[in-house]
Amino acid sequence: MHDGFFLPFFPMMSLILVYLLFLGVWIWALIQTIRCDESDGTKIAWVLVLIFVPIVGLIIWLFAGPRAKKA
User: How far apart are CA 40 and CA 54, in angstroms?
Assistant: First the structure.
């Protein structure tokens, strides 16, 4: 019934959704880091970690990264 086109569709959509979720959390982490009350050097270091080592950097940031002040 199918010609093979729809077989990779669902795995591909799953990968796209995981990527979009990761991208959203990564952008949120960058914004939270920029808004935090740490020194400029600390902010720059965390932003560089998030940019140059995105997956591992995000995991480390989730556990040890600076947080923005609550309004």
Answer: 20
Angle of CA points 52, 65, 68, to nearest 5°: 115
Alpha-carbon distances, residue 45 vs 34, 40, 51 (angstroms): 11, 9, 10
Cα 54 vs. chain centroid, distance in angstroms? Answer: 7
Report pTM: 0.77
d(CA 33, CA 22): 16
Q: Phi, psi (5° rounding) for residue 68?
A: -75, 150
In the chain, where are the structural domains located? 20-64
User: d(Cα 64, Cα 1) in Å, to the nearest integer?
Assistant: 52
Q: What is the pLDDT of residues 49-70, one digit of tens each?
A: 999 999 999 999 999 888 766 6
What is the CA angle 64-70-71, rounded to 5?
160
